[in-house]
Structures are given as structure tokens and as C-alpha cells.
Amino acid sequence: MNKVKLLPLLTALLLTVIIQSCKNDATNNSSYGAQEVFETPERPAGQTDVLELRSEPLEKINMAIIGLGMRGSGAVRRYTYIEDANVVAIADVVPEYVERAQKILEDAGKPKADGYTGVEDWKTICERDDIDLIYVCTHWDLHTPIAVYAMEHGKHVAVEVPAALTIEECWQLVNTAEKTRKHCMQLENCNYDFFEMATLNMAQQGVFGEIVHTEGAYIHDLRWLNFAEENGYWDMWRLKHLEKEDGNTYPTHGLGPIAHIMNIHRGDKMDYLVSVSTDQYGMSAYAKDKFGDTSKYAKVDYAKGDMNTTIVKTNKGKTMMIQHDVTSPRPYSRIHLVSGTKGFARKWPKTGIALEPNAHHFLNDFELDSMLKKYEHPIVKEVGEKAKEVGGHGGMDFIMDYRLIYCLKNGLPLDQDVYDAAEWSAIIQLSRISNKNQGMPVKVPDFTRGAWKKLDKVTYYTK
Ligand SMILES: NC(=O)c1ccc[n+]([C@@H]2O[C@H](COP(=O)([O-])OP(=O)(O)OC[C@H]3O[C@@H](n4cnc5c(N)ncnc54)[C@H](O)[C@@H]3O)[C@@H](O)[C@H]2O)c1
Fold first, then answer.
1. CATH code: domain of residue 225
2. pTM surpassing 0.85?
3. Pocket lining for ligand 1, CB < 6 angstroms
4. Could you report the per-residue pLDDT of 260-276, keeping only the tens digit for each?
5. Residue 117's pLDDT is what?
6. Which of 232, 283, 368, 385 has its CA 20 to 30 A from that of 410?
7. Residue 321 within a domain
8. In this structure, are residues 352 and 252 in contact, taking their beta carbons and an 8 Å threshold?
């Protein structure tokens, strides 16, 4: 054979070897797959899942609110509008905040609550036998400790976002809820935003077809609040987290509504994620501008990169993109984007819906209004007007509180369960690990330990 005939043969052989070796890399080498950084602990003997947990109906819900800062004092005010809830105990380590909350109750014609000011008084409150629900509005570090202690002492618990900071804490919540059969709800108010609820309703009625991709975010310029020393917040807890931690440190506002739209742990599941952060620029630039180059704040090496982007792949092959940025000068956005085989919706930066056969273009304002009216969620129909009147992020906070009390009163499963709390909070540590490892794919733990296939959709129960 001469050289001219041999060359094409050798080239073909070489190409075959290269293609085969690429295939082997993709299919046989597990180091390219998502890493199971956290093993799933075995469910303790005798313990079963708490999906769709129902508890004994309660005529009136006696509750304690712990942490009466910005968020907790707002909660005290909202609960004065809910007939079936009695705020019987309130606690904060700042005595003036307890007094302020008593005044809110008094002004609304409600009885005074028992006031507590000790650092560990939340334990005494959880140990009382006349309380049904502990409502936690402290800084993040106390969320899981109080929630676990409350359930251990026979109380239902509702806990501000994020419910947990680590995977270890997520498992503590799940295991305690399963052991005690008590409700543990994360107070994700954004699930009750009117537009988010309309898109949930539309999704459940098939308007978007098969939902393939969703996006959510918490993009909120909080630089002023992070550095607020006077009349700010307790012990600069927000700033301390930004100093120490990267990744998506506050994922639940963007993730909660899209997780329900995608029926996470009700037929689908978050399988793995990849996460990447920018470096940190915004906090340092702001601190230098506001406090001077030599100020204590300008000297800090903040760990939190300005923008974190996390992408989750679900077991059914769908994706969810979640972003977090609280240190850039940008307009507020939770994105809230839903994309399916028949249509599309998005809330920020400009609200729009686009549907087949004309999904190339957004519906005009009139059509959009008609769609939102047509698909107004039944719960918004029921209490939307009152929610607007009471207020709290445009009414969604009130709907959340109303639903919590309604479900407890009627012995119904809560809209958000302990697995939601664990899954949405888990993004904090998982995104940090992925980002530290150049966007390495990381498995999301299955907090239901296999039970996610039992249900086929999210249900907000009514009688
Ligand atoms: N869902 C939302 O829209 C939303 C909005 C804002 C804040 N939050 C969440 O609410 C929580 C509180 O935020 P905030 O802005 O009100 O903060 P904050 O600092 O104003 O309030 C926290 C309160 O906890 C109190 N506290 C500290 N240690 C305590 C203890 N041992 N016992 C009792 N009280 C104690 C503090 O004195 C303070 O008043 C955070 O988890 C935050 O993420 C949620």
C-alpha cells in the first residue's frame, strides 16, 4: 500500500479512537458526575414521612412570637387581624421591643401577652403547656435551635426564612418533625404574592403546558441596611454573614414559588445543582464611599461575592435558575419566570405573559389583566382584599399568616411542609460548596428519603 492510500485509513482509525475515548469520559468516569457531598442519614426506626401531615384541629391557636425586631413586630400587628389566633407570649432580648409589641396589641384592643426578655426565655416559652404554635422571627442562627426545641416540646413551629443554615440543620428539622409529628413551616411569604399565586394556578391548570424551566431570585439592594448601625437590626447579624459566607445566602424568596410550581418533592425532585459567584466588589466600594478608605468597614475582606447564580437540574430533566445579590445598585427583582411547552410568564423586570400560538409576543395590557383575573388564585379571591388592607409586602404576608392559622384550625396539611423548609434552605450550603469548587455539580439531598414519588402535585388545602 502506498503512502497516499494509508493516510485516510490512519486518520479514520485515529478519529474512531478519539470519539470512543470521549464517550468513555462521559459515561464511565464517575468523577465527572454530581458529587454526593452529604450522605442521606437512615430514617430512625419507627419514624415515617410527614408528607401531607394532618394534626388535631384547634378551635383557637395560642401562639408565641419570638424575636420582635423589624419582622417580628410586623407579625404581631398582622395577627391582631386574625380572629382565631391569640398572641399569648412575646419575647425579645431588647425590652423596648417587647413594650412596643405590647402597645401594638393594646392599640388593637387585644389582651396583653406575657412578655419575656431573657436570652434563653424561648426555651421557657416552648416548655409552657398552653401554647400551640411558636412563631420565630429572630436572626438566622436561632431559627433551627428554636424550631427543634419547640417541636420537641409538642409545639407546631413556623420559622422565618431561611429555616436552616446547613445541611445538618436541615436534617435536624426533618428528623424532629418526623419524630414528633409536629408541623414545621418556613414562613416563605413570596409564595403568597398575588402574581406568583396566579401563575401557580395557571401552571396547575395546564396553561403553560409542561413546565421545563423556571427562574427566581433575591436581588435587593440592601447595602444601606447591611451597614445600618443605629436603628438598624440586632447585632449587625446581616453584615456578619456577608463577612463570613459566600454562595446564595438567602435563596428561599426566589425559589419557594417556583419550587411549588414545579411540584418539587411532589412528583419531581431537585437532583443536583451547579453554582458560581462573582468576586466581591459592591460591599467594599460602598464602604469606601460611605465611611472612607480607612474606615473599619472598608478594611473587611467580605466573603460574599456580589452575584451568585445557581442552576438546579431536577430528576425529570428540568432546570431552575436562582440568583442572589444584595450588594449591587439595581432595581428589586425576584424574577419569577415560568417557561413551559405552551407558554411563558415573568414578573420582573416587567410583568408579562406570552402564550401559544402567539408566544413570540407578550399579551397586551388588557389581555394580561384578563388572564390574571381569570386565573386569580381561589385563596386570593377569598382573602386578597383583606390582605391588601392589612398590608405586609402588599398583602402576601397576611395571606401566609391567614393560611397557617386556617390549616391549623381545620387540621389540614400546611401549604409548606418541613421538606420545603429543608430543600429551599439547603441551597445555602450546597451553593457554597459548588462555588468553592469552580461550579462542581453537587447532589441535593433527598430529605423525603424516597417519599417524593408519593404525591403528584402541590395542594393548598381548603375544607
Ligand atoms: N419574609 C420576609 O419578607 C422577611 C423580611 C425581613 C426579614 N425576614 C427574616 O426575619 C428574620 C428577622 O429579621 P429582622 O429584619 O426582623 O431582624 P431584626 O434584627 O430586626 O430582628 C431580630 C430580633 O431578634 C431578637 N433576638 C436576638 N436574640 C434573641 C433571643 N435570644 N431571644 C429573643 N429574641 C432575640 C433581636 O433583639 C431582634 O429584635 C430574619 O430571619 C430575616 O431573614 C424575612
1. 3.30.360.10
2. yes
3. 66-72, 91-94, 97, 119, 122, 137-140, 142, 160-161, 187, 189, 233-234, 393
4. 999 999 999 999 999 99
5. 98
6. 385
7. yes
8. no
